[in-house]
Amino acid sequence: MLLSRFPRRFLAHLPTPLEPMERLSKELGGPNLWIKRDDCTGMSTGGNKTRKLEFLIAEAELQKADIVMTQGATQSNHTRQTAAFAAKVGMQCHILLEDRTGSNNANYNSNGNVLLDHLHGATTEKRRGKGLNMNAEMEAVADKLRAQGKNVYTVPGGGSNPTGALGYVNCAFEMLGQFNDRHLKVDHIIHATGSAGTQAGLIVGLIAMNAQIPLLGIGTNAAQEKQEAKIFDLAQRTAEKLGCPGIVSREDVKANCDYVGSGYGAPSEGGQEALKMFAELEGILLDPVYSAKGAAGLIDLVRKGQFKKDENIVFLHTGGSVALFGYDWAFNMEDRWTSAG
Questions:
Q1: CA angle 243–42–276, rounded 5-degree value
Q2: DSSP state, residue 75
Q3: What single DSSP character describes residue 288?
Q4: How far is Cα 13 from Cα 39, in angstroms, rounded to an integer?
Q5: Could you tell me which of 222, 288, 294, 280 has the C-alpha nearest to residue 36?
Q6: Which of 297, 284, 309, 305 lies closest to 38, judged by CA?
Q7: What would the pLDDT profile of 318-332 be if each residue is shown by its tens digit?
Q8: Is the pTM of this model over 0.85?
Q9: Which of 25, 44, 76, 160 is catalytic?
Q10: Edge-to-edge strands of the sheet including 67-73?
């Protein structure tokens, strides 16, 4: 089970803080809400992909890659963090960005994460069209580069493969240490789930430590059956990579996909409310289409009485606030302007 058996680039700012959200807890009338600040992992404003990339980039270096390639949606937090890692270790970075929204908004297409992709020195190209297999698109480009003599290391969308998921096995260990240090009995852990690597790694880590803390992913993209199947498959492969095959059962995988809204990359009404509540009550920034939807699920489940008033619920913040600058059109802040005197 020792993670030290795997190559790792120690670049993340760890451990990330575990903080109470006292004002949000009071606003909702309980339970006791906590936040695990994986928006503070470092590497170009941080986010959950940084933990994954510690293992992925180390593997790329071991393979003596000179180019790292990945793919994601236009405002992908993952591609931004990958570009930052590549800059740090001196690799070229090439990114395929998928247009999933059809938006012509200038900020959406060139600000936020896209701006940082380019500032970190990455080159990008776009893909449009429904039903694209973006990992296959990426591999096709990588093969062309390999034919030119380049040694290309490809990272799947979200960094979600068994190597990347090791980052969240480690996060599970880290959180359990923090809970123990605080003498904190945690009753539930909740987070946004998309490409599955975060949830798969957490499941394996929590089970390996016999934590017996229920974990719930709030879906941001796929329907529940498809999302849970993806998580389960990756969790199984991650456990096998760690040398403990068979420890994950289908019943360990729980995803609630009622908060996706109109689709991936599109803000939802619940997500907008959650984003404003976190900002105004806790001074914490979410992103409009991923962590905000996870928070929307958390808030709605609290309102529905899903948790007992005295329980401790930890929300894992997966980062992504840079995307706010690509979604300025989604917020009406005109009523916040006032005149002095």
A1: 105
A2: T
A3: T
A4: 10
A5: 294
A6: 284
A7: 999 999 999 988 887
A8: yes
A9: 76
A10: 123-127, 92-98, 67-73, 152-155
